[in-house]
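Minutes, project check-in
Item: structure for the 401-residue chain
Input as provided by the requester:
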Amino acid sequence: MLLRRDGRSARPSGALSDADVLIVGAGCAGLSLAWHLVERGLGGRRLLLVDPRTEYGRDRTWCFWNVVEHPFEDLVTKRWSRWRVRHDGPWVERSADGLRYEHLPSDAFYDRVLARLRAEPGVELRLGTSAGEIVEHADGVRVETSGGTLRAPIAFDSRPPPRRAASRPGRDVAFLQHFEGWQIEADRDAFDPTVATLMDFAVPQKHGVHFFYVLPYGPRRALVEATWFGTEVPGDDVYETALVRYIRESLGVTEWRITDREAGVIPMSAEPMPIRLSERVYRIGLGGGMAKPSTGYAFQAIQTFSEGMAARLDHDTLPEPPTPRTPFQLFQDRVFLSYLSRHTSRMPATLVGLFEQVEPKLLARFLSDRSSPTNALEVMAAMPIRAMTAETLRSYRLWLR
């Protein structure tokens, strides 16, 4: 019998449970938690994952600096030792000994994790299964799915949050980072595969703060991504028009074929997102605040959280979850987003200025939520002092409400 620390059964009463741990949504966060649970050993527990998709493919690309260890480092397919940004002036190019910007394709991650889970006797993966709200009752949870009712003593909801930028008046500032990317193959050599373009703001600033992101895999192959920070997601035609124009005018490529596409919407909010929704229901992934509010980086944070959560489940069937980031890290993100909301036109120059003025390793750790408070203050000091001081004071007052 699965027991809680207090000796009471953690399984639903009055009905047999379908699993000891239920994960609703088998994307990055759901699969990562399952991976770490299996790697630690299920110890007789039954793990069930449900997801509406019927197959997996390369639906996104995860990129990050190599400042956090994770179990999928061998799946990284490309590393850049140089990166650049620009606004209305020349390129600002940076590098640092030992620092790399890394690329991990989602299909490699999916293949690795799914193979591991399917080889584990205690794991069941139900694809093509949509799920409704997770409902908690006396000694368990219940969720209605397209394949019937599921019951378990504990559930993790990794489904993405709504596509909206919901700010609570006087308390929080929220944006959406939304993007569409094309992996293209040009008809001639057009890219320098040794340099990643992280932010090119030298484009029309419409529909919010707008930049392009270019990851070259070879002289003719690259991921070209149109990204915005804003409050609404535009129609598909906006992305296509922007991508075609940038590829032709900025990259100088007139003939190309699209080999893959990806798109996404990432909430950017410093409002703390509760992970534990109730005693037995947890929200993980983007809905659980795993993405860094000011940048959208999430993959490494998801791995760190999943490893910690799996360890806690070894000792307590209903544990308190790890926190993805400290209150100070949330506070500095709120200051940053508050500045963005009031000084939108300055944001391209401000971001480029950070890359120009801050030591690369320090900035990479800051952008990855791995800097100390002292280092974070050094980064913030590189931003416009008067405006940032005002936002810091304003955010401090709002944070205490």
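Outcome recorded: Confidence is low (pLDDT under 50) at residues 1-14.
No further action items on this chain.
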